[in-house]
Amino acid sequence: MEIIRVGNKHIKNYILAAVKALYKSKELKIVARGRNNNGKAIDLAEILRRQHKFDIDIKIGSEKFDDKFVSTIEITLKAKE
Asked: Residue 8: helix, strand or coil by DSSP?
Protein backbone atom coordinates (compact mmCIF):
# COMPACT_ATOMS: atom_id res chain seq x y z
CA MET A 1 0.00 0.00 0.00
CA GLU A 2 1.30 3.44 -0.95
CA ILE A 3 0.80 6.39 1.44
CA ILE A 4 0.49 10.05 0.49
CA ARG A 5 0.73 12.64 3.26
CA VAL A 6 -1.09 15.83 2.28
CA GLY A 7 0.53 19.09 3.38
CA ASN A 8 0.84 22.67 2.15
CA LYS A 9 1.84 22.00 -1.47
CA HIS A 10 -0.47 22.61 -4.41
CA ILE A 11 -2.98 19.83 -5.08
CA LYS A 12 -1.49 19.16 -8.54
CA ASN A 13 1.62 17.79 -6.84
CA TYR A 14 -0.47 15.32 -4.85
CA ILE A 15 -2.44 14.23 -7.93
CA LEU A 16 0.81 13.43 -9.75
CA ALA A 17 2.14 11.53 -6.73
CA ALA A 18 -1.12 9.59 -6.42
CA VAL A 19 -1.14 8.56 -10.08
CA LYS A 20 2.47 7.36 -9.78
CA ALA A 21 1.61 5.46 -6.60
CA LEU A 22 -1.38 3.78 -8.25
CA TYR A 23 0.91 2.34 -10.94
CA LYS A 24 2.87 0.58 -8.17
CA SER A 25 -0.04 -0.57 -6.04
CA LYS A 26 -3.80 -1.05 -6.32
CA GLU A 27 -4.29 0.46 -2.87
CA LEU A 28 -3.58 4.04 -1.83
CA LYS A 29 -3.85 5.73 1.55
CA ILE A 30 -4.23 9.53 1.75
CA VAL A 31 -3.37 10.96 5.17
CA ALA A 32 -3.82 14.57 6.32
CA ARG A 33 -3.74 16.49 9.57
CA GLY A 34 -5.05 19.99 10.17
CA ARG A 35 -7.98 22.09 9.03
CA ASN A 36 -6.84 23.11 5.54
CA ASN A 37 -5.09 19.88 4.65
CA ASN A 38 -8.15 17.73 5.36
CA GLY A 39 -9.99 19.57 2.61
CA LYS A 40 -7.13 18.92 0.20
CA ALA A 41 -7.18 15.23 1.07
CA ILE A 42 -10.91 15.05 0.33
CA ASP A 43 -10.44 16.94 -2.96
CA LEU A 44 -7.64 14.56 -3.97
CA ALA A 45 -9.76 11.49 -3.19
CA GLU A 46 -12.70 12.88 -5.17
CA ILE A 47 -10.53 13.70 -8.19
CA LEU A 48 -9.11 10.17 -8.19
CA ARG A 49 -12.55 8.62 -7.63
CA ARG A 50 -13.96 10.40 -10.69
CA GLN A 51 -11.18 9.02 -12.89
CA HIS A 52 -11.18 5.42 -11.63
CA LYS A 53 -13.47 3.07 -9.76
CA PHE A 54 -12.41 2.69 -6.12
CA ASP A 55 -13.79 1.32 -2.89
CA ILE A 56 -13.33 4.09 -0.34
CA ASP A 57 -12.79 3.80 3.42
CA ILE A 58 -12.63 7.01 5.48
CA LYS A 59 -11.41 7.38 9.06
CA ILE A 60 -11.74 10.71 10.87
CA GLY A 61 -10.18 11.50 14.22
CA SER A 62 -8.07 13.90 16.23
CA GLU A 63 -4.59 13.93 17.72
CA LYS A 64 -3.05 15.98 20.47
CA PHE A 65 -0.31 18.16 18.99
CA ASP A 66 1.48 20.93 20.96
CA ASP A 67 -1.23 20.99 23.66
CA LYS A 68 -3.98 21.36 21.02
CA PHE A 69 -6.20 18.83 19.35
CA VAL A 70 -5.75 18.64 15.58
CA SER A 71 -8.22 16.94 13.25
CA THR A 72 -6.99 14.05 11.12
CA ILE A 73 -8.36 12.17 8.15
CA GLU A 74 -7.26 8.93 6.55
CA ILE A 75 -8.79 7.94 3.21
CA THR A 76 -8.05 4.50 1.77
CA LEU A 77 -8.74 3.88 -1.92
CA LYS A 78 -8.83 0.29 -3.19
CA ALA A 79 -9.15 -0.44 -6.90
CA LYS A 80 -12.27 -2.40 -7.83
CA GLU A 81 -11.61 -5.58 -9.74
From this structure: coil
d(CA 33, CA 70): 7
Q: How many separate domains does the chain show?
A: 1
Residue 67 belongs to domain spanning: 2-79
- What string of DSSP letters covers 22-79? HHH-SEEEEEEESHHHHHHHHHHHHHHHHHS-EEEEEEEEEEEETTEEEEEEEEEEEE
Q: Please state the pTM of the whole predicted model.
A: 0.89
What's the pLDDT tens digit per position in 27-50? 999 999 988 888 899 999 999 988
Task: Give me the pLDDT at residue 37, please.
Answer: 86
Task: Identify the sign of the CA torsion 43, 26, 12, 64.
Answer: positive
- Euclidean distance between CA atoms 3 and 32, whole angstroms: 11
For residue 27, give the CATH number of its domain. 3.30.110.20
